Amino acid sequence: MPAGAYLYGRLGPQTQLWLSTAVFLVGVTTTVTAVSMTMLIAGLAIRGLAAGLLAGLGLGVLSGIYEEPVDRERAFGLFALMWVVPSLIGPLINSAILLSVGWRPAMAWPAILLLIGRALVSRSLRRVVLDRPDAPPVLAGMPWFLVIAAGLVVAQVTVVVGSPLVLAAALVAVAAVLVVAFRRAVSSTTPARRRTQSGGWALALTCAGYFGVGAIVPLIAVVIIDPSGVLAAALVALGPLAWALLSAGRVGPRLSTSSARIIAAAGFPLAAGLAAAGALQAEEGVAGAVLLGAAVLVAGAAMGVIYPRIMTLAFVGFRESSSITRAHGGVVLSLSEDVGTAVGATVLAGLGGVLVTTGAEAVAILLGAVALGLGAFWAMSSRGAVWEADDAPGEATVRDRTQ
Asked: Which spans are transmembrane here (predicted)?
C-alpha cells in the first residue's frame, strides 16, 4: 500500500494503474495454472500485492476532482456502490461457473472484467488534469505496514487454536496493532494532517463494526438456525443491499455531519445488540432470524450514511506538498478500511466461531461486550479532528513534518 502512493506521485496514475494490472494478471496466471495449494495461495498473494499497488489512486483522484464536499461525498457514495453491487452479484456468477465448468475458469474469468474496467478507467484518466509533485513522493511507513500485517496474521492464526490463553494472546496482538503500528503507519504516511489521520481512525472503527457484525451473523444462522446455509446467504446480502440503497439514494449528503455521526454512533452498537438478541433467540427460529436480519440491516444503513462522509471529511483542507499527495490520504483510508475489517472479523467471527460451539449465551455475551465497546469508541471518536468544522484552524497552518 505505501508503494501505491509512491507510484502515483513518481510515475503517475496511468503507470500505476497498468503496473498493478500486470501484477494482477501474473497472480491470476499463477492461480489458474496451480498444481498445488501452495502455488494457489501464492497466486492469491500476488493478486493482493496488485491491489496494494493500486492503493490511493481512486480516492486520490476523486478527492481532487470534486472540490465541493457535497459533490465529493456523492462521488464516494457511488465509489462504494461500484464494489458493493459486484460483491453481491459476483458470488452467484462464480458459483455457477464453478459448478458447471470448474475452479480454474472460476479463478480466470474476473480478469476479463478487470481488463475492460481498467481500460475504461485509463481512458477517463486521460481527460483529467492532475498535479504532479515537484519532488519525489515519500515512501513512508513501510515497516509499520509490515508490522500491521504480521500482527493481524498472528491474531488470526491464534484464534484458530481456540484455547482461552491463546485467544487472550490474539486480542493482545490486535490491540498492539491498533495502538502502536496503526497509529505510526497513519502518522508517517500523512504527517501533520490531523483531519486525515482522524478520518483513518474513524473509518477503521466503522469497518470494524460493520464487517464484524456481518461476519458473525451468518455464523450464528448456520450453526444454530439453518445448517443448510440458505438463511446465512440471505443475511449476508441484506447488509450490502442496505448500504448500496442508501449510497445510491444519496441519503448521506442530505444529512448534517453531526446527524451522520450520531446515526453511526448509535447504529453499530445497536446492530451488535440486535445480533446478541438474535443469538439468544436463535433456537426459536423465526424470531432469531428476524433479529439477525435487523442487525445486518441496521449495520448496512449506518455504513451507507457514514462511510462516504468520513472519506469526504478526511480530505477537507488536505494540503498537498512536494512529497505528500492526495494519494497518501487515499492510502491511509484504504489501510484503515482493511485494518478495521480484519480486526472486526477476527474478534467477532474468530472468537464467535469458538464460542458458538459452547452455546448461544456465550456468543450473546461477546456481542454485548462488543456493543458496549463500539459505543465507547464512538463516544471517544466524537472529539476527533475529522468532525471539526470545515474552516477549523490548524490544518493549513501546521508545518510539514515528513518522515
From this structure: 17-42, 48-66, 78-101, 107-125, 137-159, 165-182, 202-224, 230-248, 260-280, 286-310, 331-356, 362-380
